[in-house]
Amino acid sequence: MATYVLVHDAWHTGKDLEPTASPIREAGHRVHTPTIAGNKPGDPKTVGLDDAIRSIADYLAGKNLKDVILLGHGYGGMIITGVADRLPERIRRLVYWNAFVPNNGESLNDMAAYVRLCTSQRGDGSIMVPFQIWRETFINDVDLETAQKAYDALNPHPEKTLVDQISIMTNPKDAGRD
Fold first, then answer.
1. The domain spanning residue 159 has which CATH number?
2. Domain range holding 71?
3. Mind listing the pLDDT tens digit for each residue in 137-149?
């Protein structure tokens, strides 16, 4: 039995990964789907990348999770990279599921400038992707009704987490090398 921690993408919450968690649990594994700081509806949207990383590191420590398979989806790749750098003794494996894999000093916006170009600022430190951009860029392989339903589940995302540069001691490509 393994322990998985699934870390969601931007504009989402941990709840959105429950359909992914279900079959893993059914196979007998423990699965956690925490929500990154700043991503819960009602959270302050002034959260930066360091705060977001710390929220998941604190989750692992608070639950005393060890030997964890840490999976990040999309923006979640930024988070799992930072968590693994801070708590390597708690991590068995990192899984990047269609996720960003940053090197020290990179921001998500450095790796995908379109994020900055296709979002609208909301005045509270958060950003949203306009529906048409969401539809054409992120979910163009489903029907309009499914795309709209997925879009309606999104919530404003802290802009600072996308533009802050990650600060890590070891780049993912160098991890595990002696």
1. 3.40.50.1820
2. 3-171
3. 889 999 999 999 9
